[in-house]
Design goal:
2 domains, six-stranded parallel sheet
């Protein structure tokens, strides 16, 4: 399909060099693909205070308006729900002011002063929805709401009413909604969102960057040595934010069952989050601390890739994961994956659990016994597990590249022009 050249306004909370999770990875790669396909992209994202307010990186125009702290102002007039945020009110304040400044700069500077003619605006999650609503009020530019997760999903149904209201209003007023998996689309429609507006575009991975052929054996040995994992031991890897929805607690509870049959096994947990203390305490309580290595830090992408390459299998037992880019990264690196497939989880659309194209195992992320079963099934036949890894990389190349994701997204934008 041939496209006209589009000018895209792209509003997102995280963008390099500030990446917190999968949303930042998505934004980084998809905007570069849009530019690679010949389109113009203007990104509006948060400024930590020490970044340029306007620059071009890899062909992408980036705007980062400087914000000010209004956290002590909000409690004077906001709903009771926001007062309950406590010290987190600063986060809401930053998001709100960032959205307002970004939208006003977009409308008054880029469009009115500089003469930009935008074809479409895309906003990502509630974190950019306020800007989308303002732009919808002030212009006739089509607005697409990209939904990577929801407040009810992240919080187990106990989240902020204010955030849920932003999500709902943006869904009603947007011209289209794009989400990341069929599981997520079904969840949105169950919650009353307009089904006719919702399209699914899977996320991707860069198979050239995530390529096991590019990794030197001596670098992989260094990684395993760093974690104290002998050559004849199994290495399991979890990468992700350490929050309850990722199921790390259940994974730890599975470890005693794994170690009874495979005592020469170490689990490496890589990430940061509010569960850090619980993880350490749980490992000690279960007596598996000698077989669990925790790195509570954000590891640069090059080193993350080496971690994938060094491991024998990756385990992602999330209880809520609308897509889950980490499993694609593992698949691209030729690794078998043990993934949760119960609930609102996109992993089950990535991982084939049986047949000639099998590339991993589906488990119930809420069940430590089932997690243990999946790990043991993977460890018991290393040759079969390697074949699963090969199948995973083939599947990535066929269905899950960023170029494919960008083209599918543009096909949804096109009719809105």
């Amino acid at each position: 399909m041939e496209y006209s050249v589009l000018r895209i306004g792209f509003f997102v909370y995280e963008y390099p060099p500030q990446i917190v999770g999968g949303l930042g990875t998505y934004a980084d790669y998809i905007t570069r693909e849009f530019v690679g396909l010949g389109h113009d992209v203007s990104v509006f994202t948060l400024n930590s205070g020490d970044l340029k307010t306007r620059e071009i990186l890899k062909g992408v125009e980036i705007h980062r308006p400087l914000i000010a702290d209004a956290s002590d102002v909000f409690p004077m007039f906001v709903a009771e729900d926001l007062r309950e945020w406590g010290t987190n009110i600063r986060f809401f304040s930053d998001i709100f002011i960032h959205n307002v400044l970004s939208a006003t700069k977009f409308i008054n500077d880029l469009i009115k002063k500089e003469g930009y003619r935008f074809d479409v605006v895309c906003v990502h999650d509630w974190l950019s929805s306020i800007a989308g609503l303002i732009i919808k009020n002030e212009t006739r530019i089509p607005v697409v709401f990209h939904v990577h997760s929801t407040e009810w999903g992240r919080s187990g149904g106990h989240g902020s009413r204010v955030v849920s209201h932003f999500e709902w209003e943006t869904a009603q007023r947007a011209d289209r909604i794009i989400t990341v998996s069929h599981a997520m689309r079904d969840d949105l429609t169950r919650h009353g969102w307009p089904q006719s507006k919702i399209s699914v575009v899977w996320n991707g991975v860069d198979p050239e960057r995530y390529n096991p052929q590019n990794c030197r054996p001596e670098d992989l040995q260094k990684i395993r040595h760093k974690y104290g994992i002998p050559e004849d031991w199994n290495m399991l890897l979890f990468i992700g934010r350490l929050t309850w929805v990722k199921g790390v607690g259940n994974l730890l509870q599975a470890m005693p069952m794994v170690l009874r049959e495979y005592p020469k096994t170490k689990l490496v947990i890589l990430g940061k989050g509010e569960e850090q203390r619980d993880i350490v305490e749980t490992a000690e309580r279960l007596g598996v601390e000698e077989n669990v290595v925790c790195r509570f830090e954000f590891v640069p992408e090059d080193e993350r890739i080496l971690n994938y390459a060094a491991t024998d299998a990756c385990v992602f037992p999330s209880v809520y994961e609308p897509f889950g880019i980490v499993s694609l990264e593992a698949m691209a690196m030729g690794k078998p994956v043990i993934v949760s497939a119960k609930g609102v989880v996109g992993f089950r659309e990535q991982v084939i659990p049986s047949g000639p194209d099998q590339n991993g195992i589906h488990i119930d992320g809420e069940s430590p016994a089932d997690i243990a079963w999946g790990i043991k099934e993977t460890l018991k036949d290393p040759q079969k597990a390697r074949k699963w890894g090969e199948n995973g990389r083939k599947r990535v190349l066929e269905y899950f590249t960023w170029r494919k994701a960008a083209k599918q997204t543009l096909e949804i934008y096109e009719p809105l022009l």
